[in-house]
Amino acid sequence: EALAGYCDDILVTIHADNSISVIDNGRGIPTGVKMDDKHDPKRSAAEIVMTELHAGGKFDQNSYKVSGGLHGVGVSCVNALSSWLRLTVKRDGRKYFMEFHRGVPQERLIEEVKGERVSPIRQVGETEHRGTEVHFLADQTIFGNIEYHYDILAKRMRELSFLNNGVRIRLIDQRSGKEEDFAFGGGVRGFVEYV
Prior knowledge:
Helix 4 crosses helix 5 (187-194). This protein has helices spanning 45-51, 74-80, 140-143, 150-163, 187-194, and strands at 9-14, 20-24, 42-43, 82-91, 94-101, 104-105, 111-113, 116-119, 122-126, 131-138, 168-173, 179-182. Strands 1, 2, 4, 5, 6, 9, 10, 11 and 12 form a 9-stranded mixed sheet that branches. A 3-stranded mixed sheet has the order 3-8-7. The protein is an alpha+beta fold. 21% of the residues lie in helices and 32% in strands. The chain has 5 helices and 12 strands. It has 2 domains: 9-143, Histidine kinase-like ATPase, C-terminal domain (Heat Shock Protein 90); 149-195, no CATH class. The protein is globular. It starts with 8 loop residues before the first strand and ends with a helix. It catalyses: ATP-dependent breakage, passage and rejoining of double-stranded DNA. GO terms for molecular function: ATP binding; DNA binding; DNA topoisomerase type II (double strand cut, ATP-hydrolyzing) activity. Belongs to the type II topoisomerase GyrB family. InterPro entries: HATPase_C_sf (IPR036890), HATPase_dom (IPR003594), Topo_IIA (IPR001241). Keywords: ATP-binding, DNA-binding, Isomerase, Nucleotide-binding, Topoisomerase.
């Protein structure tokens, strides 16, 4: 979203329970049911993004002309490797929510539309805001004792800030009270000058 020019504010929080949340003010992950989905029931675009590899950024005429990252691998892998993941999407005046346990959707809605079984994402309210929140707890049965190192995350957020001109990235550590605001510009040149 940031690379495509739709997001200029990202908040990353390390919570006291060692979960992580990432909130942006982008357009929000698409929420409509994909009627061409081969799955039964047919799923929302948001569920597909969260559960299938290589699914990001391909859902409508507003697909990205520019992309960064791991080609849609990132969030679906985080989801599969998390004890729980909670997705909140704010899009088109509506607020949606979906929870996963180890990548599996919980409390799935099933409806029938035009003779097809569909599973829409649950609308939980209305909003004037837009964006996506992903909040997850890494699975300790996979990773063992997990300890996030603030300094390592801060370094990465700083690098991302230089590479995404005009994007403010905030990092908050509720465990220690540390907090930093990264809003650098200048790309690679700015980063080299900083170093």
